[in-house]
Amino acid sequence: xxxxxxxxxxxxxxxxxxxxxxxxxxxxxxxxxxxxxxxxxxxxxxxxxxxxxxxxxxxxxxxxxxxxxxxxxxxxxxxxxxxxxxxxxxxxxxxxxxxxxxxxxxxxxxxxxxxxxxxxxxxxxxxxxxxxxxxxxxxxxxxxxxxxxxxxxxxxxxxxxxxxxxxxxxxxxxxxxxxxxxxxxxxxxxxxxxxxxxxxxxxxxxxxxxxxxxxxxxxxxxxxxxxxxxxxxxxxxxxxxxxxxxxxxxxxxxxxxxxxxxxxxxxxxxxxxxxxxxxxxxxxxxxxxxxxxxxxxxxxxxxxxxxxxxxxxxxxxxxxxxxxxxxxxxxxxxxxxxxxxxxxxxxxxxxxxxxxxxxxxxxxxxxxxxxxxxxxxxxxxxxxxxxxxxxxxxxxxxxxxxxxxxxxxxxxxxxxxxxxxxxxxxxxxxxxxx
Length: 434
Fold this sequence. Notes:
The chain is an alpha+beta fold. The protein folds into 2 domains: 8-193, no CATH class; 196-433, no CATH class. 36% of the residues lie in helices and 20% in strands. It contains 13 helices and 12 strands. It has helices at residues 22-25, 37-52, 84-97, 128-138, 162-172, 198-210, 224-236, 244-266, 285-295, 337-348, 358-369, 377-383, 385-393; strands at 8-14, 55-67, 70-81, 102-108, 114-119, 142-146, 149-154, 175-186, 270-273, 297-300, 322-326, 332-336. The strands form 3 sheets. Strands 1-3-2-6-7-5-8-4 form an 8-stranded antiparallel β-barrel. The protein has a two-stranded parallel sheet with strand order 9-10. α8 (244-266) crosses α10 (337-348) and α11 (358-369) packs antiparallel against α13. The longest helix has 23 residues, at 244-266.
């Protein structure tokens, strides 16, 4: 976005890091924390939230947040929006989803009562260790280091004293001043319901460690056109349960699903079939996440319940096979592979806070994909991405041209609860789709 007249600019620092995040750091020889599942999901999440709040992230830097002689990895952002309220609402969502008490937003303002001080005019830049030493000596509680510079916000309500500034300059050299209006934006607690479950992030990342899977990549940009292409491919392709490539992919998927079920069970998670009177065990993804987070429990939708629907599992299908898994008590039990997959996918993938709508299902597919070897991706695509694209971008959702989707409120648009289930089949799509 161009830095147009009238646009509001602000500097923001935020992070998903929490004390329990150290569990994730111990799991793998990552080059940095920024290669971890926790950070990559966060980076995807804040960008998606920025789109919702009509905000553009212009610059992003990895930073060390400094507070009371402690450090934590963070992100430093320069953002533009049409109004300050867009930025405030984005910051409140980010704070809520990642359980930060508040996020500091520094609006650039030539008449602002606060100042952002940037120290960085030193050979070799300013290291985190040097910044902490200088701040400790000057009695300055907080700041952030990024790109060899130290930034400190001095507010009108609690300004740095001349003595503090002199002590910082004595160790760090001169500084630049940017007039700002600093605000602490408190978290919007509504988004806590969709905050990632860090323990399951750790379990998933440990699974990747054991199988030497590559570092997770950010979610690619997948447009409406991509969704339609996936839906058309699935719609027209024939069911090929006896194809050797398909059989191998499903065999690898089943092996990993059993392992992932057992890893969850070993951590105390209990997954049980839904036997209630309603079709689905949860009214929303938030309700499911609450059950997982607070009770380490998950109901899954049984395959036999859907046998009378359009999405029935064919008797000749790789997911109709039985698998043996462990309960939380360590006892073995046999169930349909399709049931095990439904439970594990909800726990392993949706536990990052991904909702049940089109965008959430897309991100859940990508999350689960990162915890599986490449051989299993064909099967996973059939069981997740393909079926969800057919439901949300299939022929019943396409305009007469077949190139665009009906929009909410337009003739032909179908609300999400009323959309048909996809036929469950295993097909061979182009490799680029999986």
